[in-house]
Amino acid sequence: MADGLTFQIKPEGEFTSLDLFVRALEDVRKLVIEVDYAVNRKRSGKRWAVTRLNSSSPTFTIAPAGYPALRDSGFEQSISAIVVGIEEITQDADRPPQYFTEDGLKCLMKMRRHFSGQGKADSICVSANGDGPTAITGDIGRQVKKILASGYSGLGSLEGHLEAVNFHRRPNFTVWERVSRAPVRCSLPNTPDWKELTKSLLEKRVLVQGRIRYFSNGVPQSVGDVQDILDNTPDPTLPRSEFGCIPDDEAAEDPAKFVRAIRGYDEE
After folding, report:
1. pLDDT at residue 144, as a whole number
2. At residue 184, does pLDDT exceed 90?
3. Measured between alpha carbons, how far is 99 from 36 in angstroms, rounded to an integer?
4. CA quadruple 26, 28, 34, 40: dihedral, nearest 10
């Protein structure tokens, strides 16, 4: 089992500037929060603590706050998702690693700022459980952009539970999409009517209609220009349909699970 995530900042020169260290630590915090949210549906930096800090080529390890008591509460999966995801991205993947949402990818892309200007970093290495480190370098901006730009978009709808409403600056809300089980950020018009509608549907199963941006693997990336949000809570009094073109009984029992299987999504 992983003892935590270890990051090592390797400066281009002899010393790591205070500015580089502080900015790198903040970007790591944002990345960990976004991926952890996609895994566990909990968004808080207080879930993590610095457990080790070395001064030469500044190296710090983060682990669950209260570790190891919280070892089995989903953190292991978050740690693995971050390490494996960064490794895939730095190997020039053209699709997002599992649990790397649009927000998570943008947090990682922001790290490109550490590789330019005076006192820049040569690399930032990440590792877990003593395995060989993966180096984030100045190429990270191009590597993430490749994933963000490789998808497609079109008018459509997606279904899932609505949560995490945010009305600051550009109003948006998050829908946990039913098939991919990924959090998808949806933008909405900045008007009182839209805000009231969104609040009234909080924590309900909804159908969102608008222009959907997809990653190249078909996972929804974001929804812009939202046209409508409909309450799609199942009515338990209605009979379930027993007809259609779903190929077998297993698929008919849980269509979302069937679609996940044919798309190759992890069932964990």
Report:
1. 97
2. yes
3. 8
4. -120
pTM for the structure as a whole = 0.82
| Type of residue found at 204 | K
| Residue range 152-263 in CATH 2.40.50.140 | yes
pLDDT class for 52, splitting at 50, 70, 90? Answer: confident
Secondary structure class of 69 (helix, strand, coil): coil
pLDDT, residue 117, reads 87
Q: What dihedral do alpha carbons 8, 9, 13, 16 form, nearest 10°?
A: -120
Two tokens at 220?
């929804």
3-state helix, strand, coil in the chain (%, to 5): 35, 30, 35
Residue-range domain boundaries for the chain: 5-149, 152-263
Strands 183-187 and 172-177: antiparallel
Contact between 189 and 171 under an 8 Å Cβ cutoff? The reply is yes
The structure tokens listed for 232 are 């799609």
Query: Please, which pLDDT band fits residue 72 given cuts at 50, 70 and 90?
Result: low
Q: In degrees rounded to 5, what are phi and psi of residue 142?
A: -65, -40
